[in-house]
Prior knowledge:
By secondary structure, this protein is an all-alpha fold. Helix content is 64%, strand content 0%.
Amino acid sequence: MTNHSADLALFDYLETQEELFRKATLRLGAPSGKEALSGGAEWILDNYYLVQQTCRQIREDMPPGFYRQLPQVDDGPLIGYARVYAIAQKLIAMDNAQFALEHAQRFLQVYQNFAPLTIGELWALPVMLRLGLIELLAQAVSRLSGLPRNNPLRGLPLRRALSDDAIVATCITSLRTLAAQDWQTFFESVSWVEQILRTDPAEAYARMDRETRDRYRKVIEELAFATGAAEQAVAHEAIEWARANALTPRTTHVGYYLVDEGRVRLETQLGYCVPLRARWRRWVLRHPTRSYLGRIGVLALLIVLGGMSYAQAAGGDFLQWLVVSACLLIPALTLSVNFINWIVTRTIPPRVLPKMDFETGIPSDAKTMVVV
Length: 372
């Protein structure tokens, strides 16, 4: 599953394994008077729905093109695979497929002292863990059912040999464990970019809600991808800008250089070339009234002029032109407003407004009184 054909390979792989599991459940569930079902067979029959759910979730969490952007392994038994897949395989092998969140946190913290992971890699880790467990489960189910394997993934051997029955039980238990984790909290505990942003001179970033923090990190990811800089370097640069401009609370906050007017300074420092579409979108957002009303006016004017041209071609006089224009004015404005609204909702996605997280209560410095 190398990156040049990664998306297709991944979806082909999932289809093949789903077919294997389907056939295996039919074979293992077929009544036979010879001998009782093994423990592994009972596990897979009772939890087949969980396997289907996991394969479906892998598809949903791995959008087209995402896998190709992940850094690859340069050497070793998993050469050509995504680095985060190799890490997932290492975690599975190290714990004998018994996933433990604490072990994963410690492993990633040590690993990143030598090779920091990107934001995309950390978000992809749960998917890769599920993928690795599905592969290990498919191997065991294939042997239990006597069905041949097609399109297998490469993996790492478990630290300690297990029977097929034990592998099936352990993999299904681990899939349940993965489904119950709070991956947002896990991500923020191991992300270096997150730790850097939490040094915000305004001390506001750590107090903001999850959606806002995620929006800030996406900007870091976008700028790093476009400029070739490391994500940690981009985050450091934003923090340095905030420290160097501690004149007002607004310019002291790191978000000013990520989602506000200060972003231009950060982009210039990084050598980021703003795409034409992004420039147009920024111009529209800076001049919303002029842009919105101007487009409505131009479109309505074109419709009215079209009606006047038709009246002229039909031999109408000046008074008739005015009557046609007056009759078309309100319909033209209504049509223009509806059309421009339709265009805007499809070309300018809604933005998450930066906000604080007050789930645990309003801090003393944010308390106020509203009198109606």
